[in-house]
Specification:
Radius of gyration of chain B: 18 Å
Number of strands of chain A: 5
Shape of chain B: globular
Number of helices of chain B: 12
Order of helices and strands of chain B: EHEHHHEEHEHEHEHHEHHH
Number of domains of chain B: 1
Distance between the termini of chain B: 53 Å
Distance between the termini of chain A: 38 Å
Largest interface: A-B, 17 and 21 residues
Oligomer: heterodimer
Structural class of chain A: alpha+beta
Helix content of chain B: 40-55%
Radius of gyration of chain A: 20 Å
Bound molecules: adenosine-5'-triphosphate, magnesium ion
Structural class of chain B: alpha/beta
CATH architecture of chain B: 3-Layer(aba) Sandwich
Chain lengths: 129, 274
């Protein structure tokens, strides 16, 4: 560690390089293990957001679709805070016949949240190799 | 023979130069000294150097090639270590060979060797191509060795994935060239960082140690002469753990104060690093 690095660290401006190494490795390994390059992941992220947005209004600023990896299991994790459900034509028709409250399709993949009462975070994980 | 089947262990890393051959030589001698009949197989015939590390470079006459072609018997090709007769070396081939052995060749030769051994250690070539695949095909279990550096850990991860799909198990980890001081100041991936990321059980920690180079120069593995250097002890402990002995692992960057100070002094003395 050079004196400059040391001062930077004292001032909290720079993380120790070992910490950076771990962060960078975790990211690159998630991609290596899934065989998804960043470009493909980005495309998938856009398409997922597109589909989800058909059903619910999501907070694009906060939203995040990424690969995470733990114990050699890589998961695709979508963390998409829902602002509110979008009434869909199909659902509105169905709801006219059935009794409220109705559930938006997004709920199916968000086990612990109710999109109408509390804008929760849908989190879905699919293990892959 | 009525004894238990031989342990056939691949020593591999993905990245080159992280310490596979050094580990194979030292572990081979350590196991032999514990009474295990051990054969070390140099699977890298293009760039052989297990013979050099063991000081056996002038004694190689035949290789696995000739055994497979039946131009010599296995006993003729096995080079017995003079001081440690429980250890023999078998080179897979010679550098003049143009083609790799096939995976079937490797399986056959390892099968033959395993009949007369308790441990067969296969020193794997770097990379994940032919040489690695052949060696992996003949192995039951593996030790992946890496250093606490991003590129080495990334390559180790690739290799672990390939070993998993090939059903090689168990796969254990050796972390080599650990620098306790850099780890303590978090300027190096920590032991937990590496084991977390690779999710493998740790079977050994080897510090950066000048004695490794000295012993390589002489062609006398550190475990052959009890000089008590930190790396020598680390290799001996790996051998004992492999045999099922419960030898506690100590993270040199976290050792208790007195102990740590002593260790640091020793490393300082032996490596002159800081
Ligand atoms: N713990 C250690 N401390 C100091 N030097 C070491 C240590 N381990 C290995 N080395 C040195 O690192 C170099 C590479 O080691 P080695 O030849 O064992 O690696 P390898 O993985 O077999 O390489 P290759 O991929 O080329 O076969 C050697 O010069 C060796 O002396
Ligand atoms: Mg080597």
């Amino acid at each position: 560690m050079t004196l400059f690095d040391f001062i930077q660290r004292l001032l909290g401006r720079q993380k120790p390089s070992g910490t950076r190494a771990k962060e960078r490795l975790q990211l690159v390994l998630a991609h290596d293990r899934s065989d998804l390059n960043p470009e493909l992941l980005d495309q998938m992220r856009r398409e997922i957001l597109e589909v989800v947005q058909r059903y619910v209004e999501i907070d694009l600023e906060e939203g995040d679709v990424s690969l995470e990896t733990e114990d050699r299991v890589t998961a695709l994790v979508a963390n998409l805070p829902i602002k509110r459900a979008r009434p869909l034509p199909a659902l509105v028709n169905a709801a006219a016949a059935a009794a409220p409250p109705r559930k938006s399709p997004a709920d199916a993949s968000a086990p612990s949240s109710d999109s109408e009462s509390s804008p929760g975070q849908g989190e879905e994980a699919s293990p892959s190799g | 023979m009525t004894s238990a089947p031989a342990r056939i262990i691949l020593i591999c890393s993905g990245k080159g130069g992280v310490g596979k051959t050094t580990l194979t030589a030292n572990l081979g001698i350590a196991l032999a000294r514990l009474g295990e009949r051990t054969v070390v197989l140099d699977a890298d015939f293009g760039l052989r150097n297990l013979d050099l590390l063991l000081g056996l470079e002038n004694r190689i006459v035949y290789t696995a090639q000739e055994v497979l072609a039946e131009t010599c018997r296995l006993e003729q090709a096995l080079v017995k270590h003079k001081q440690e007769p429980n250890l023999s070396l078998l080179p897979a081939g010679n550098p003049r060979m143009l083609e790799w052995l096939t995976p079937e060749d490797m399986q056959r030769i390892v099968g033959m060797v395993a009949e007369r051994a308790d441990y067969v250690l296969i020193d794997c070539p770097a990379g994940i191509e032919e040489g690695f695949k052949n060696a992996a095909a003949a192995s039951r279990e593996a030790i992946v060795i890496t250093t606490p550096e991003v590129s080495a850990v990334r390559d180790a991860d690739r290799v672990i994935g390939l070993l998993n799909t090939r059903g090689v198990s168990p796969v254990q980890l050796v972390l080599n060239r650990v620098r306790p001081r850099m780890m303590a100041s978090q300027e190096m991936l920590s032991v937990e960082d590496v084991t977390d990321i690779l999710a493998l059980p740790l079977v050994g920690l080897v510090v950066e140690d000048e004695q490794v180079i000295v012993s390589t120069n002489r062609g006398e593995p550190l475990t052959l002469v009890d000089n008590g250097s930190p790396a020598a002890r680390a290799y001996q402990n790996i051998a004992r753990r492999l045999r099922g002995e419960d030898v506690p692992l100590e993270d040199p960057s976290k050792a208790r104060k007195g102990l740590r100070a002593r260790l640091m002094n020793r490393i300082r003395r032996t490596t002159g690093l800081f």
